[in-house]
Amino acid sequence: MNKFLRIAETHPLTWRLRDDEQTIWIKEYCNKDGYKALKKALKEMLPEDIINTIKESGLKGRGGAGFPTGLKWSLMSQNKLSINRRYLVCNADEMEPGTYKDRLLIEKIPHQLIEGMVLAAYALNVSRGYIFLRGEYIQAENILKKSIQEAINFGYVGSNILGSNFNFTIILHTGAGRYICGEETALINSLEGRRPNPRSKPPFPAVFGLWGKPTCVNNVETLSNIPYILLHGINWYKNLSKSVDAGTKLMGFSGKVKNPGVWELPFGTTAREILEDYACGMKSGFFLKAWQPGGAGTDFLTPADLDIPMDFNNISKAGSRLGTALAMAVDNKTNIVSLVHNIEKFFARESCGLCTPCRDGLPWIVKILKSLEKRQGHKDDVYTLERLCIHLSPGKTFCAHAPGAIEPLQSAIKYFRSEFEAGISKKNIDINKKIIGIQSN
Amino acid sequence: MSIKFQLTNEEINEIEKHKKDYENFRAISIEALKIVQKKRGWISDQAIYAIAEILKINPSEVEGVATFYSQIFRQPVGRNIIRYCDSVVCFLTGYKAIKIALEDFLKIKIGETTQDNRFTLLPVCCLGNCDKAPTIMINEDTYSFLTPESIPCLLESYK
Questions:
Q1: Mean of pLDDT values over A387-404
Q2: For the whole model, what pTM was predicted?
Q3: What pLDDT score was predicted for residue B95?
Q4: Span B9-68: which CATH code?
């Protein structure tokens, strides 16, 4: 996090961060407004009030899909008659290539997440919550363990929290390294100790989730937003933003830029502002060729799109997805086919293998891209890639893994078709001519 | 004659400790695999049976979980696990040179273990360190802003 002026009124998620980048433990967190929202909510607010506040605040899920959090919560509360236990799961399985925001929140300011979880649990009448943390985040695991214990010692987690008769325990669960576990229903299967294949929806987790009980799965950044919304109100939160999406978002730029990083910015900040003012532009000798707005599973955009405000609607109108809003700059010296080959190799490796289009289609794409990269492609390869993009598009596969995987591919073909065609071997074209007498186009 | 595989009391206690956190024993399978792997380095067939017995589930279900995750090893590995991030930002910032430096120094290919059993080399998905790429992880430590030249010195510190 770079040293830009951060104040509580404009940077609810990051104003507490220290310049020496050390973790903020409970005493410092409490000195900086920590657990104030929890005290206020338990004393003054009913669970329905909290759900309504979150609903009206316009908070959208920060995991990438942008589903309204209040709506997700109200789906849980509709299930009032259920005598079942309910669960809250914090999705901290951050494995999307190019994404590094949750790690910052967990490692530097863990109590913000814990407070958000306790508030969410109170609103949703949940007595047990899990943090599903990816296995590779060892440092984050140690920090969370210590923080949860601190919160228990201070009476913010456990039984009879602040004398309110409300009980909530947090269990830290670590994964063992699979990208698919970040998918809501696969995460639930993984938590249950099953193979993490996604589940068919409906029924949605709010009705039938962890061990068949109503379950709410929220991202780390989403939960970290809760305390300050409850403390300062809906209007304040909406006014933070420069666009229709409420609040702030952790955004950043990585790649060959001078100052890669992550910053808390209002929705509606343009990518150019982030790239030029915060990331300080491209490294000398490099120019921006393309960029991905939010992780490896989002469509490429071009330098002409840099002035589009970063929010869910505007990025979507430009033909991509906001995703995690952690943008990546592709420089002019990078071959786009090699880059897409790298991305698709990741998605092929991480396919859970449950449904055929994804299991077989992605390795097929990788194979074609590999031969195009070596300039040994066949005449129809680009056409085949386009067909595969259609066959792996939304609705054709069991979950969103394959549709996410083909987003960078289809946009790369759209903008840089000639680079793909350059990978077609001249020898292969000549062979075709000789064999069947056809002409290459 | 093969020696009968037995979980140590320490391992059993550690696994049992997690039982209260979940609605059923199956949910502890990943944790149990990690606990057993911690000291032994990898998960043998006998370990699968032993874990299945303690969790009271079918061994094939434990096997199903064990083979799914990249952090669970079903064959022996070296004392130190090197995971280099090969995701897109590390690709842009030069992970390939790091990979070549690792392979050259260790004289092994990806997925292999050095003859002296000192290192195993594996790829890993994005380590969430993209603003400090390229990055690798050795055992539990993450290293950022790597250069191919820094590899030999770094690896020497792992015995």
A1: 94
A2: 0.94
A3: 94
A4: 1.10.10.1590
